[in-house]
């Protein structure tokens, strides 16, 4: 900003010097003094950071200009608008007041000087106004950048914290699970085994003296052990999540929600042995189904959407098809690419077809293909 | 076996439309490699890129281990293309046609004459040297088209739907000559949307859809994607005679059901046990009225995977 002001003043000053030099004025020494004093006063303005000395300097410069204009040459008056502008803009933000104030001296300016004064005033004003607009914009950008930087910092901190939290909870859950498991085994099986052991010990001692009693005790121990074994089996079975149910149930829930929340008829069918689908494959199927359904809701104008999971002999086929308007020409957006990448991570492919409604087929190999 | 052709991440875009989508495949020496897919699946676009007629948007193609973009001349002299649309001159004789194309591939003098005669002989047009293609039947034109592509004895022959719109006789002739060329050591890429043809002659098949290879393998491997069992339905006069247990003893047989004078057997697809089953039924004095075997074909594979028919 200061730079522009100085440039503007320098331009005007040089103009005056040039005109007066060519006009061959006689009191050259006085003129030179006027130039130099104006120059030094105006150089001093940007040097001060505080408001009052700045004001003083501007005022002095303006006085100098007026004095020179009256005593030496009226041409000096063209330097006045810049000082006025500077002075006013220190106090008021509204630019049009500055323009008005700059217009005031025009009343006192001699008739001959009027056009050049108005021109100088107007050009200076334009320069500053334009400059100010840019400065404001720049400041806005800078503020925004600063705000975004803050945001980024805040978010990355939150992310770190969350990651840490996830790690912690994973660890805690693992511990809890282990705790639960050992507790369970201890409760269910430990006692039974201890009981069986006692009976077996007793039976060993009685073996020689009382064979019948010994065999009875042994029989008891066997029964207890059997029961214990059965309990272990049951415990383990109950604890193991049924992966098949996890997957298809989650998908079913999603499909039901879709039907309930949106004006679309959603159906899910499945076929084949869903047990072979691994959790990772379920995740891909679920994510791709979600993505495809979102697309359908957004663009498809469909009334029906059909989900299908079919386990073939070496391939799992997961289909999402709607009866909407489809797309004669498929443009791969980030969604489709994402689905493809997910499928590719498990060695599969995605077929997107827009010929009859819109359909997305995810093919994932499983077992021992080829 | 070395790779005659290797394609890596081949992509072709026409504006926003992706005709070939990140395709990778390898064709080994001595194969008849089938490209099976509906119209517009990207077969011809791929072929055109292999034969340097189209520049790929992305990806590389190696012929006999050499990049075709960097070894254009080498690639062209080792590939013979039988295009989908006939590429013969109607007002040149059959001989002139073949000789012209062979000349383009760089054959000269005696060799040119020899190979021209040989190629015409091969496609069964040995007696039509002086005839003009405009008087040929569709099948003969196709055969001449093939002769033009093979006269320079390329390592790799690409046939793009060579049997479209011709009579069954010419079609058989062409299929036989494909086999013969293969026996002579040529590697062949064969595209078609006729499932039966591909199933009949190809040693390995890629199913193409929307510019992607969605499945690849021998026809047995492809069928095994869907199921590894087949259904055999045998109509009989009376159910009384049938001994289910003895049928179950036959290798491959998984389940046997009898209903409404029909024996329904589900069996492993790769075991050929129809003979044994029928013999067993005859031994049981059953009176057989009909036999039907339902095994998956490539059409079913395509339909199951894509939900569409090959000829949509």
Automatic annotation (TrEMBL), chain A:
Enzyme class: transferase
Entry annotated with the keyword DNA-binding: no
The keyword Phosphoprotein is annotated on this UniProt entry: yes
Enzyme nomenclature, EC number: 2.7.13.3
Catalyzed reactions per annotation: ATP + protein L-histidine = ADP + protein N-phospho-L-histidine
CDD domains hit by this protein: HATPase_UhpB-NarQ-NarX-like
Coiled coil: 131-158
Segments traversing the membrane: 12-36, 56-82, 102-128
Gene3D superfamilies tied to this protein: 1.20.5.1930, Histidine kinase-like ATPase, C-terminal domain
GO CC, alphabetical: membrane
Signal transduction histidine kinase subgroup 3 dimerisation and phosphoacceptor domain boundaries: 177-243
InterPro entries: HATPase_C_sf, Sensor_HK_TwoCompSys, Sig_transdc_His_kin_sub3_dim/P
An example Gene Ontology molecular-function term: ATP binding
Record key words, sorted: ATP-binding, Coiled coil, Kinase, Membrane, Nucleotide-binding, Phosphoprotein, Transferase, Transmembrane, Transmembrane helix, Two-component regulatory system
Protein name: histidine kinase
Organism whose genome encodes this protein: Cohnella nanjingensis
UniProtKB/TrEMBL annotation, chain B:
Lineage per the UniProt record: Bacteria, Bacillati, Bacillota, Bacilli, Bacillales
Keywords: ATP-binding, Coiled coil, Nucleotide-binding
Name of the protein this chain belongs to: ABC transporter ATP-binding protein
Keyword Ligase attributed: no
Annotated GO MF terms: ATP binding; ATP hydrolysis activity
Keyword ATP-binding: yes
Organism whose genome encodes this protein: Cohnella nanjingensis
UniProt-listed InterPro entries: AAA+_ATPase (IPR003593), ABC_transporter-like_ATP-bd (IPR003439), ABC_transporter-like_CS (IPR017871), P-loop_NTPase (IPR027417)
PANTHER family xref list: LINEARMYCIN RESISTANCE ATP-BINDING PROTEIN LNRL
């Amino acid at each position: 900003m200061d730079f522009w002001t100085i440039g503007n003043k320098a331009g005007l000053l040089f103009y005056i010097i040039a005109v007066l030099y060519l006009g061959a004025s006689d009191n050259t020494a006085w003129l030179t003094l006027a130039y130099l004093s104006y120059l030094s006063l105006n150089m001093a303005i940007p040097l001060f950071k505080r408001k009052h000395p700045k004001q003083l300097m501007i005022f002095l410069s303006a006085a100098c200009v007026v004095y020179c204009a009256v005593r030496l040459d009226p041409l000096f008056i063209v330097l006045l608008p810049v000082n006025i502008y500077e002075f006013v803009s220190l106090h008021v933000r509204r630019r049009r007041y500055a323009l008005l104030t700059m217009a005031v001296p025009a009343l006192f300016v001699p008739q001959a000087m009027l056009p050049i004064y108005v021109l100088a005033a107007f050009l200076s004003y334009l320069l500053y106004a334009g400059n100010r607009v840019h400065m404001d914009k720049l400041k806005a950008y800078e503020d925004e950048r600063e705000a975004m930087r803050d945001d980024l910092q805040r978010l990355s901190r939150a992310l770190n914290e969350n990651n840490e939290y996830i790690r912690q909870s994973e660890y805690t859950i693992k511990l809890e699970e282990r705790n639960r498991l050992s507790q369970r085994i201890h409760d269910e099986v430990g006692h039974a085994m201890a009981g069986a052991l006692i009976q077996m010990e007793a039976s060993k001692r009685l073996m020689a003296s009382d064979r019948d009693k010994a065999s009875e005790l042994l029989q008891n121990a066997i029964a207890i052990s059997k029961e214990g074994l059965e309990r272990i089996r049951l415990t383990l079975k109950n604890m193991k999540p049924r992966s098949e149910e996890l997957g298809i149930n989650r998908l079913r829930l999603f499909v039901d929600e879709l039907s309930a929340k949106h004006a679309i008829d959603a159906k899910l069918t499945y076929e084949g042995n869903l047990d072979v689908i691994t959790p990772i494959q379920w995740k891909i199927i679920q994510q791709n189904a979600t993505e495809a359904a979102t697309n359908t809701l957004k663009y498809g104008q469909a009334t029906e959407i059909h989900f299908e999971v079919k386990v073939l002999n070496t391939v799992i086929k997961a289909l999402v098809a709607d009866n909407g308007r489809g797309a004669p020409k498929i443009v791969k957006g980030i969604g489709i690419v994402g689905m493809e990448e997910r499928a590719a991570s498990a060695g599969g492919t995605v077929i997107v077809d827009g010929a009859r409604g819109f359909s997305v087929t995810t093919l994932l190999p499983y077992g021992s293909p080829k | 076996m070395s790779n005659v052709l290797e394609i890596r991440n081949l992509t072709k875009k026409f504006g926003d439309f992706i005709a070939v989508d990140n395709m990778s495949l390898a064709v080994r020496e001595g194969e008849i490699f089938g490209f099976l897919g509906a119209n517009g699946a990207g077969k011809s676009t791929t072929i055109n890129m292999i034969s340097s007629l189209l520049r790929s948007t992305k990806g590389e193609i190696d012929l006999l281990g050499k990049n075709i973009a960097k070894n254009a001349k080498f690639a062209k002299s080792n590939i013979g293309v039988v295009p989908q649309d006939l590429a013969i001159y109607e007002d040149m004789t059959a001989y002139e046609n073949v000789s012209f194309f062979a000349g383009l591939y760089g054959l000269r003098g005696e060799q040119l004459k020899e190979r021209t005669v040989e190629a015409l002989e091969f496609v069964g047009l040995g007696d039509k040297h002086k005839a003009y293609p405009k008087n040929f039947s569709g099948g003969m034109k196709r055969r001449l088209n093939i002769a033009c592509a093979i006269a320079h004895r390329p390592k790799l022959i690409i046939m793009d739907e060579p049997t479209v719109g011709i009579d069954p006789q010419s079609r058989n002739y062409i299929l036989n000559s494909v086999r013969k060329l293969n026996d002579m050591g040529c590697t062949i890429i064969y595209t078609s949307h006729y499932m039966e043809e591909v199933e009949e002659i190809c040693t390995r098949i890629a199913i193409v859809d929307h510019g992607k290879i969605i499945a690849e393998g021998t026809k047995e491997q492809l069928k095994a994607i869907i199921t590894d069992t087949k259904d055999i339905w045998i109509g009989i006069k009376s159910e009384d005679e049938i001994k289910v247990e003895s049928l179950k003893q036959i290798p491959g047989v998984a389940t046997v059901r009898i209903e409404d004078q029909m024996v329904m057997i589900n069996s492993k697809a790769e075991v050929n046990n129809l003979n044994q089953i029928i013999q067993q039924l005859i031994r049981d004095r059953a009176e057989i009225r009909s036999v039907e075997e339902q095994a998956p074909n490539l059409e079913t594979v395509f339909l199951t995977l894509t939900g569409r028919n090959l000829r949509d």
